[in-house]
Write a structure and sequence with these properties.
Layout: H1 10-24, H2 33-46, H3 52-59, H4 65-75, H5 86-96, E1 106-110, H6 117-129, E2 134-140, H7 143-151, E3 153-155, H8 164-170, E4 171-173, E5 181-184, H9 186-189, E6 192-196, E7 209-214, H10 223-234, E8 237-245, E9 258-262, E10 265-268, H11 270-273
Parallel strand pairs: 1-2, 1-7, 2-6, 7-8
Antiparallel strand pairs: 3-5, 4-5, 8-10, 9-10
Length: about 280
């Protein structure tokens, strides 16, 4: 609901466009003007601000970092569900985990984890069949979804991707105020390490990973932003590590740091490992 608010004009939209891209990497083309209106309208009303130019001045002022964070959270997309794009989890189970076991820790990074469904899907897969020590690191730019992910509580209808075996083993039904919800069991929640992280900023020195999930993220970025991010992630993969992207995404003509094994599944190239 925008309650009569006017869309930002081209000049003001351009200011928001540049700010959002600088802070999150997301590029909003001008036809997303209505999306900006709808996503941010409730903040303008909450702050009793009548125009987008006034709101822009507010969120770019020195003392309004919290409001800027709220605005960016509303812009970022958080659509996800359990075992989304199932072939990736089949790949994780049948290809990656069948690789020779050198007894080192197997590490997976869910790099845009949103409310946690992807990271917990990875953890269920590893819990089932990974004989090595393992770790799931999960991150997102959005503080509120990280907090939700840590709780591991989901509406029943959002858990349809989970098999009956996994539901029985890794989820518990809610009662009372949580009727109609499921919660991931503590044994699984404790195996996923959720962190607030902006991929546009310097990455933490937290070691390297066997697999990075970066799915349905780069579709919101311009090519130069994609290239910079993929370069950074190449330094976070172990030699021969895998990068999984969304099925609507491709690295073709963007980078040669990875080679394609199959649609949406890439492996770190030998020349990148040598650096």
């Amino acid at each position: 609901m925008n309650n009569g608010l006017q869309k930002p004009n081209s000049e003001i939209f351009g200011l928001f466009q540049r700010l959002i891209q600088e802070k999150t990497g997301i590029f909003l083309p001008e036809h997303k003007n209505t999306l900006l209106l709808n996503r941010l309208a409730k903040r303008l009303f909450a702050r009793e601000i009548g125009s987008f130019d006034d709101y822009y001045r507010l969120i770019t002022s020195i003392n309004e970092h919290a409001e800027l964070d709220l605005a960016l959270e509303l812009i970022t997309t958080n659509e996800t569900y359990f075992f989304r794009e199932p072939k990736h989890f089949e790949f994780l189970r049948n290809v990656v985990l069948d690789a020779p076991n050198d007894h080192s820790q197997f590490r997976v990074w869910s790099a845009a984890s949103s409310t946690g469904e992807e990271a917990y899907s990875v953890a269920m897969t590893l819990m089932d069949c990974c004989v090595r020590p393992w770790e799931v690191f999960a991150s997102d730019i959005n503080q509120s979804v990280i907090e939700q992910a840590r709780k591991g509580i989901y509406l029943d209808q959002r858990t349809t991707g989970i098999s009956s075996e996994h539901l029985q083993q890794y989820c518990r039904k809610g009662f009372g105020a949580y009727e109609g919800h499921l919660r991931v069991v503590p044994e699984l929640r404790n195996r996923v390490d959720f962190h607030l992280l902006n991929l546009m900023e310097p990455l933490p020195q937290n070691g390297t990973f066997d697999v990075i999930f970066l799915r349905n993220v780069m579709i919101y970025f311009e090519k130069v932003t994609q290239q910079k991010l993929l370069k950074k992630l190449s330094h976070r993969l172990k030699p021969g590590g895998w990068l999984l992207v969304g099925h609507s995404e491709s690295l073709h003509s963007i980078t040669d740091d990875y080679y394609q094994l199959r649609p949406s599944i890439y492996r770190l190239s030998a020349h990148r490992e040598a650096h």
